[in-house]
């Protein structure tokens, strides 16, 4: 029998923009993966310019080079890209301000800027992504991956296995490799997964269909008490203790520590 293992690690260097594959990732203080949501775009009021606020973020094609600390950015579907220094972001700020049509600034926090400040990496099974993709015509597994934007994918398990990582009234402990995590509950979703990740266009009936199928396919091991609604997918985690410096890698085993 195949054991649960880490099949894929993805981080999203600039909050709400494209992610990238990692073979290994170190944890920073607070439990985020190093380089995940390290940068964010904000307006003059300090509010995030993200996918919840505007579908225009989907029109950007972005890749970050962590070694050189540069970002290549352009409009999705166009070949031209500009490269910017992430340590001196004045030109990047000007380019993005022109793109969005209002003044924005790229800010940095090396401990990460997730929506929940106490959150560790998010976890989902590869089988879950395949199952959810099958609910919709024309939606691919990779497109589903980009809609839901999890950090860690687990292989060797059935769909919705990640629901085992939290209890009906609290967390459950598990290890990835030698790193201890606590599953903190299912992640409630926003408008972003309802949109095509390439175009930003809304997939008609996506949320309604998702809710119907999520309830219909809820496994017996899933704590239904944690579902006040069924527009939830992937598991939020926390990292007990400082976490900093510990590393997870593709191929690491995943082991439950408590029931």
Q: How many β-strand stretches? A: 15
Roughly what fraction of the amino acids lie in strands? 25-35%
Structural class, from helix and strand content?
alpha+beta
- Using the alpha-carbon principal axes, give the shape: globular
Total helical elements: 4
Q: Give the topology string: H per helix, E per strand.
A: EEEEEEEHEEHHEEEHEEE
Main sheet: strand order: 2-1-10-9
**Can you tell me the residue ranges where pLDDT is under 50 for at least 5 consecutive residues?**
none
Distance between the termini: 20 Å
Q: Radius of gyration over alpha carbons?
A: 18 Å
Summarize the amount of helix as a percent range: 10-25%
Please tell me the overall pLDDT: 94
Main sheet properties: 4 strands, mixed
What does this structure look like?
- With 259 residues, this protein is an alpha+beta fold.
- The chain is built from 4 helices and 15 strands.
- It has helices at 90-100, 126-133, 141-148, 206-216; strands at residues 5-11, 20-22, 24-26, 39-42, 60-65, 70-75, 82-85, 105-108, 123-125, 152-155, 172-176, 179-188, 232-238, 247-249, 254-256.
- The strands form 5 sheets. Strands 2-1-10-9 form a 4-stranded mixed sheet. A 4-stranded antiparallel sheet has the order 13-12-11-15, with no helix packed on it. Strands 5-6-7 form a 3-stranded antiparallel sheet, with no helix packed on it.
- A hairpin with a 6-residue loop joins strand 6 (70-75) and strand 7.
